[in-house]
Task: structure prediction
Amino acid sequence: MKLNLVMLAAMTAAGLVACGGDNNPVAVTPPATPAIPEGTTVTLALMETTDIHANVMSYNYYSLAEDTSLGLERTSTLVKAARAENPNNLLLDDGDVIQGTLLGDMQAVTKPIACSDTMAVHKVMNAMKYDGGGFGNHEFNYGLPLLSQITNTDFGIPGVTKPTGTCGAPTFPLVLTNVTGVASGKPIVQPYSLLARTFSATKPDGTKLDVKMNIGIMSFVPPQILEWDQKNLAGKVAITGVQEAAKQYVPEMRTKGADLVVALSHGGLDPSTYSPKMENGSYHLTSTGIDALLIGHSHLIFPKGKETGAAALDPSFAAFPASANIDAVNGFVNGVPTVMAQSWGRRLGIIKMTLAYTSGKWVVQPAKTTVESRGFKYTDGTTNVAADSTVAPLIATEHAATIAYAKQPLGVTTDFEMSSYFSLAGDVTAIQLVNQAQLAYVKNFIATSTDATIASYKNIPVISCSAPFKAGRNGASDFTDVAPGASAAAPIGLQVRNPGDLYLYSNNNLQAVKIKGSDLKAWLETAAKQFGQIDPTKTAEQDLVPSYGTIYNYDVFYAENNALTYQIDVTKPGGSRIVNLTYLGKAVADTDDFIVATNDYRAGGGGAVPGIDGSKTIIKSPDANQTVVSNYLTAQGTATGKVTLASNGSARSWSFVKVATAGPVILRSAPGHLALAKSSGLTAVTAEGGLDASGFGKYTIDLSK
Result:
């Protein structure tokens, strides 16, 4: 049969032409594809985890105790329940997966895993059948070579070589949208992925129909990774602002058939004017054409929990102006459904959305979309979900090895308990040793340096600052507590796990900055913003610390022999609270010189301390702060065999300006530690009340004492 060109063109357009063995076109009949009726709907659940931080088991390796408030083994139970409720679903992760516990540190640093092995957290995520994932800032903490290996990805960066062969890695696609290689100018990881899925749909007549959809996912990290992990990333990668990167790729994803575009943004919500350098730029992704927004980094709950007795909204959310168009109760930002599932696997974000087939495309129905950040007690507000029994066996070997590692002795004892329960009330038992270790390191570095510039600093006072990193940010169990019950009569031997409890971030390297007295005061003012402004005349209850969301920015300063002292007036607004700042008994002048021992995060600009932006850094140590603390403790063991409260845990450099208040002022902390506050001499902590909705104990603080 002969076909004329008109007939051939028509048949080709209709999909009715194939090539025969002699390349002559022949007519064929394509398989029938059911048409999707107008008005057909699909109900889809997007599930999110974020900031897992290597918390796989419901276990605290620092205290060597079970902690049922966290862990992927319980998140897995939430996932299974949500999947049963929503047959059409996708499980996605928003980054900060591999770092955060001794388990992660052991597999990345102490005993780095081989290419043939898979990180414990990734083993479990593979078993949970994640559909996709993004990156967080902490993915870069262990360096690009390890990250390349454990993700089985060639980044295309000179000098960063993935081991040959196939390395153990996530079995789901990973995406990273705003990071490119300096040399190549290309994304180091695929900037997006289109997940092809078949979902069950409902036609207007109520009957079912299977439909194919493409879900596009992309992922964003804070631009500050170039500061926070400068030692790993400088000269190797470049960062694009989240909005610019999204605007580049969202249209491309749509062109390639994305029916739904989901942004995995490792950043919180900041509705202030957009900048490509914003740490928390997620808000500004809502103007780029995305359909759903999964966020993280801030370790907060968004929207407000729906379970009985759910905690109040974090003050940072509650304070958003109405003009920002952020609905923190229902979970919408500028009309885009948005969820943040806290951290450490403690919640599961669920965006349940309905899409209607309209004019040949799937359209989200906002009125039929709900958002939930579901916690372990979602059923009744009281009962924790049980752990998924299939998870523990997957990493039993790694779990046991981590515990054995954590128990190794440091060779030094302590006669006091080092805790952060009352760090915001003046207790320094969990902070002073860190400051002493950092200070001793920097003084020795300067004294032994052969560099003429460094040696010229030997007459400048060296001080140190550190924060109570574990002081409630991640719930009522998230506090440092080293050697509970230790006393002069019954000292306790310290172990490998303890420096990580005192200094959480194993990726931080020690650095030192040279500053003026005016810089010091501005630094202290920034730290003091952690406190709420207390109205002495108010009779209603007031929170001394309204939010623990950025507690890692509460720097406490220390000088040898407690030579630096200062006071904080919490009745004043932020920025004008520091008074009576003295060094060696003399008021600190704006022109005085100081060298501050700190970490690379803070020295490079982390925490937005005015003037501390990397330009004042004089020492960049190759040693991690956590290692510096560990080595200092070991050295104390060699010298004296012990650390003591008198020498290492009682130098309170700061206090509150005394003020009487008409109503109660409270500090939220782990419950049951009033006796510890009293035995530590914290006279301002006068009573303990009941629990709040998040499980924190409410302690009365008398600011007049």
The longest strand covers residues 208-220. Confidence is low (pLDDT under 50) at residues 1-33. Residues 40-398 form a domain with the Purple Acid Phosphatase; chain A, domain 2 fold (CATH 3.60.21.10).
